[in-house]
Amino acid sequence: MKEWWLQVGLLGVPLLAVYLHIPPPQLSPALRSWKSSGSFFTYKDLNVFYRDSGGAVGSSDVVVLLHGFPTSSYDWSKIWEGLTQRFHRVIALDFLGFGFSDKPRPHGYSIFEQATIVEGLLRHLGLRHQRINLLSHDYGDTVAQELLH
């Protein structure tokens, strides 16, 4: 029995080392376009990706989009154009650890921190005292509940 575990360990350690050093795949044209139309802001020395688009003339409504797990702000790409026709401003971010945002290791990720990052983004964009609409799904629902609390 001891020999079996030794063999697994001898095989598993090199595989893990290779896995951790594999470069990420090339971005698709759609993802390259999404990233190039966004920006980054800094939260505690970490880069957080966001996209901010002006939209409907005559509206003052702002919507912040909170993505699910394990995805990114790109979740909203297919309805982005429609949202910009309804809202004055459409904003989406990649939560820390997701999408184009930094993925620090080790890090104690939490819903509370993700909500704090959303609040930091709103301050960064000068929307701290603005009425905000939230549109979320999955993981983003929990972050939205924390924001509403």
TrEMBL record:
Keyword Signal recorded: yes
Pfam families: Abhydrolase_1 (PF00561)
Keyword entries, A-Z: Signal
Superkingdom, natural source: Eukaryota
Signal among keywords: yes
GO BP terms, alphabetized: acylglycerol catabolic process
GO CC aspect terms: membrane
PANTHER family reported in the protein's UniProt record: HYDROLASE, PUTATIVE (AFU_ORTHOLOGUE AFUA_2G14860)-RELATED, MONOACYLGLYCEROL LIPASE
Family, per entry: Belongs to the AB hydrolase superfamily.
Protein's name in the database: MEST protein
